[in-house]
Design brief:
Strand content: 15-25%
CATH architecture of the largest domain: Alpha-Beta Complex
Radius of gyration: 22 Å
Number of strands: 22
Helix content: 25-40%
Number of helices: 14
CATH class of the largest domain: Alpha Beta
Largest sheet: 8 strands, mixed
Structural class: alpha/beta
Distance between the termini: 22 Å
Length: about 425
């Protein structure tokens, strides 16, 4: 073990995202000395609010899912964080540049949700299929109408955005569970960073402190940042799934085989966002979103409408799965050319000049290496428990360790509470 030169504290928390801040906050409230080490020069991890476009834009997490049962919903209310209910059926659908009647769009979206529920219910116990395979089986078993095909194509594209993954790898059971209560979500429009700031209040946080190695023995944990070793009695590790998989942080002794296998088996999704502000809302609809149906399947098929949410002429385009990975390999200029072309094809008109735009790149971000986890075909919830299992004096948190709420801010928050309880029980 390295020399213990730093003053011993009780707990080091690695990562100042929601799970790390929550764990540290609860430990500090219990009177435990705790220090957070964060690689970035900001708080929040994959929660990142940007205001360059004149309003809060969430470049990472954007929703409070299942708000009626989400512990962060009450925190957001207490902190006067503005949110708005999401109605996923409140979309304006376009086919080849022509706007569909509202009742047509709602019927098409509803048809996909019914198909998804029916396919999941028809699975024998213990069986799972990819979304693509399930749709193929469904189409082979009955005559498919043109409306059914439209609903299927729309659903495939939408599922890539929800999960950040491709339909050939997505668990049908997992996707159906994620979409079980879609209209109980609330979108954060007042700036998620205000909630992050509340969680961080009063905590000892060291920004720009990337951890390279974690060592432990029977009595202490030592964490290396640059040339410095920091020591504590316990550590809570909240590294994102993509960072764990990449092996960017050296563990000594190594992580157990079961934990490393679980990190590989769980899907690591990717979502790319483009937030673009225009001089006027030329799309002329107050629907919460705009999306494409039929025709060529574009990279950007879905656009969140800032004119509806925030009363500003702003659209956010989403690309998920392998399409997001391809786009991340391009320059911002190339991505914007594709974004504007897909928007033109959707609306049947050329967009006016942009005022400004932002492109996210979570896959190439060394402190994230992806957006959020997803359930692959044949998913077993024991994977999350394996990723959450303590190893000696190390405890683990993060959305990927949550079996009931993976890939969500609520899952990250709950995992931070769990990790804090585990450590408190040992102090």
């Amino acid at each position: 073990m390295p020399d213990q030169t730093a003053c011993m504290i009780s707990v080091i928390v690695i990562g100042a995202g929601v799970s790390g801040l929550t764990a540290a906050r609860n430990l500090a409230r219990a009177g435990v000395s705790v220090q957070i080490l964060e690689s970035r020069d900001r708080l929040g991890g994959r929660v990142w609010t940007d205001r360059r476009l004149g309003v809060p834009v969430e470049l990472g997490a954007s929703w409070l899912h299942d708000a009626a049962h989400n512990p962060l919903a009450s925190l957001s209310t207490d902190n006067h964080l503005a949110t708005t209910a999401t109605n996923h059926a409140d979309q304006t659908l376009f086919r080849d540049g022509t706007r569909l009647a509202p009742e047509q769009g709602k019927a098409l979206i509803g048809r996909f949700y019914r198909q998804l529920s029916e396919m999941a219910a028809a699975l024998p116990a213990g069986e799972d299929l990819s979304l693509a395979a399930a749709l193929d089986r469904s189409q082979a078993a009955k005559e498919i109408t043109a409306s059914d095909r439209d609903a299927i194509r729309w659903g495939l594209s939408f599922s890539r955005l929800v999960e950040g993954a491709d339909e050939t790898d997505l668990s049908l059971r997992g996707l159906a569970a994620d979409m079980e209560a879609p209209d109980q979500d609330r979108m954060v429009i007042g700036g998620f960073d205000s909630l992050i700031g509340q969680l961080a209040t009063g905590l000892d946080i060291r920004l720009s402190h990337p951890v390279q190695a974690i060592r432990q023995n029977r009595e202490t944990v030592s964490v290396r940042v640059g040339r410095e070793w920091l020591s504590s009695r316990f550590a809570i590790v909240t590294l994102p799934l993509g960072v764990l998989r990449a092996g960017d942080v050296c563990f000594s002794p190594p992580l157990p085989d079961e934990q490393r296998a679980a990190a590989t088996e769980l899907g690591n999704g990717l979502l790319l966002k483009v937030a673009a502000r225009f001089s006027v809302p030329f799309w002329a609809t107050r629907s919460q979103a705009l999306s494409a149906v039929g025709g060529v399947d574009p990279d950007f098929f879905y656009f969140l409408n800032g004119w509806a949410y925030q009363n500003v002429p702003l659209l956010q385009g989403f690309a998920g799965g392998h399409r997001a990975r391809v786009l991340e390999g391009m320059s911002n200029r190339q991505v914007m050319e594709i974004f504007l072309k897909d928007l033109k094809d959707l609306l049947g008109q050329t967009p006016p000049p942009l005022q400004d735009a932002i492109v996210t790149r979570w896959g190439s971000d060394p402190w994230a290496r992806g957006a959020y986890s997803y359930r692959r075909v044949g998913h077993d919830d024991r994977i999350h428990h394996q990723l959450a299992a303590a190893m000696g004096r190390l405890h683990f948190a993060g959305e990927h360790t949550s079996a009931n709420h993976p890939a969500t801010v609520a899952g990250a928050y709950r995992s931070g509470l769990r990790a804090a309880r585990e450590v408190l029980a040992r102090l």
